Amino acid sequence: MPSEIGNILAGLPPALSGEVVDTLAESDSVRIERIVSNGQATPEGEWYDQERDEWVLVLAGSAGLLFEGALEPQRLVAGDCALIPAGCRHRVAWTDPDMKTVWLAVHFESTNPPRKAHCLP
Amino acid sequence: MPSEIGNILAGLPPALSGEVVDTLAESDSVRIERIVSNGQATPEGEWYDQERDEWVLVLAGSAGLLFEGALEPQRLVAGDCALIPAGCRHRVAWTDPDMKTVWLAVHFESTNPPRKAHCLP
Q1: What is the pLDDT at residue B17?
Q2: Which sign does the torsion angle of CA A13, A25, B57, B31 carry?
């Protein structure tokens, strides 16, 4: 039987909860998450360095995504998506201080080299 | 290096193109697609019957998702998401006739039984 249908923008956690991650679907090879940020950033000096590829899509709010070696963060707004390849060190430099930022994140086993990865348009 | 950042709601194909599927990221275990529908439905009497799980999220527009055995389609609007387990026969009964319906679809190898699958809230 199919799972229940729900709305990813409904039931957002209260702002006081800090950053909240919910797993929406998961298998051995993939994990689909909703992440709700309330102005949080990756702690200063810390970097994410992940073993799996991560594809992210901002659904609401905005955020600054900084890749190691880049001069400044790339600004993401609603609808913006990016692939973060495994081993590509990055941090969230900022998230919107005035509203909740809702991310969809898909973590998956990478193919090396990646078969295809691009964003639209 | 990370891929370029793009906007999933930008560069939508013209209405005359029919239903258009673009692969945004892909590996051996997962394929992330943007699907843009312009009022199309699954042909009458046809069903999707997929070997992999599919998680879908409607980003714009609306659609009716019918699972075999259900009395009527479930209406999906922007933000609505659902897991369609492998082997779960389904069809798209309708998509919004008045605007483009934009889907995000994540196809992935299922774990049997699924470890986790739910939608929010």
Answers
A1: 76
A2: positive
